Amino acid sequence: MNLYFEKFHNRLSALSTEYVRDIIHTIPWNSRLLGITGARGTGKSTLLLQYIKLNLPLNGTVLYVSLDDLAFANINLSEFAAAFVQNGGQHLFLDEVHKYPEWVIHLKNIYDSQPGLKITFTGSSLLNILDSRADLSRRALIFKMQGLSFREYLGIKGIYKTEKASLSDILFNFSDITTEVNSKTRPIQHFNKYLTHGYYPFFLEDDFWYHQRVQNVVNMILEVELPMLRRVDINSTFRLKQLLGIIAVSAPFIPNVSALSQKPGINRNTLLTYLHYLEDAALTKNLNRDLFGVSLLQKPEKIFLDNTNLAAALAPESMNRGNARETFFANQLGYQHKLTFPKTGDFIVDEKYLFEIGGKNKSKKQITSQSDAFMVNDDIEFGFGKTLPLWLFGFLY
């Protein structure tokens, strides 16, 4: 046990709390069993350690361990938790819990047998966590953590710090917000960098190898998780990677399932199922006409990569700008709002607001007859009327 406390304290001593993401204030940390999920590289480990450093005593009652530690290969997790409680432990933080065999069973056993212990866990395998939510539903609260918003990127880089804005603020009070931001920095300059290198916080560690690390995340999901957790044919993983590359360079990607299924040699129903698996793994985002009744065999109207940094990593020389605009909008809005595909325009948000996305010179004639319709333009610093700057939607969280 002393070894794990030593590792824990070493990590805390090296941890910066200069910038802390707002999500730390919305998570119910006092829950008996709390799960935080999110794609690899989104900063879950940092969030746990920052919360501990800022809020909890270092008196032996709190312990953080990462279950990808090789030393845990021969340790029974349930027994480890029991020993921690016997020595006065009250709050156990388990990072990368999906790396431990039969982790769900152990968490349930610990929860039931140690009523005085609070357990917080993280998991980067979204497919693994998704499979386990039903088993933990009576016991655990699960929160999803997204990559950095454009606002958070500016803050963590020390460029500009401000509070998040609501969608209503952005739509109806954008003039005050854009004036304030532009008085302190040039948002478009930093926005272009964010689209390629700003979504995953690990750019702080190594910017040069950033895209290689993003590609490693993609390869882990395609080559390990999908075959293991969704029984995807290993021979299909290369084709799926090709498909992600096609999505990255399309403007944007409107799937022709019949043609796609012929090209990779995968039948139509299997391909549709795979498209939903990619979304479950946070590699893509599907846009449908209806929020309800979406099935595995329903064809999406549009498919985006989950975020623009994936596109920059998979197609560094040919990422489509029009695609990137819509991908950014879908990523930032889709985190806390509902998106559907409209008859005209590009997105309906919360079944109310209609948006058309484009470059700074794109006309809004497609949506002029619609109420609650807005034009969102790239490469503009200020908005006017019902035309808003694209970068501003990165201030929602």
Word description of this protein:
This protein is an alpha/beta fold. It contains 15 helices and twelve strands. The strands form three sheets. A five-stranded parallel sheet has the order 2-3-4-1-5, with helices on both faces. Helix 3 (77-86) links the parallel strand 2 (62-66) and strand 3. Helix 10 crosses helix 11 and helix 11 crosses helix 14 (308-314). The longest helix has 20 residues, at 210-229. The chain starts with a helix and ends in an 8-residue tail after the last strand.
Strand sequence of the main sheet, in spatial order? 2-3-4-1-5
Please state the CA-atom Rg, rounded to the nearest Å: 22 Å
Contiguous uncertain segments of 5+ residues = none
Q: Give the averaged pLDDT, no decimals.
A: 92
Return the string of H and E elements.
HEHEHEHEHEHHHHHHHHEEHHEEEEE
Give the CA-based shape.
globular
* Number of beta strands: 12
Q: Summarize the main sheet.
A: 5 strands, parallel
Overall structural class, as computed from helix and strand content, comes to: alpha/beta
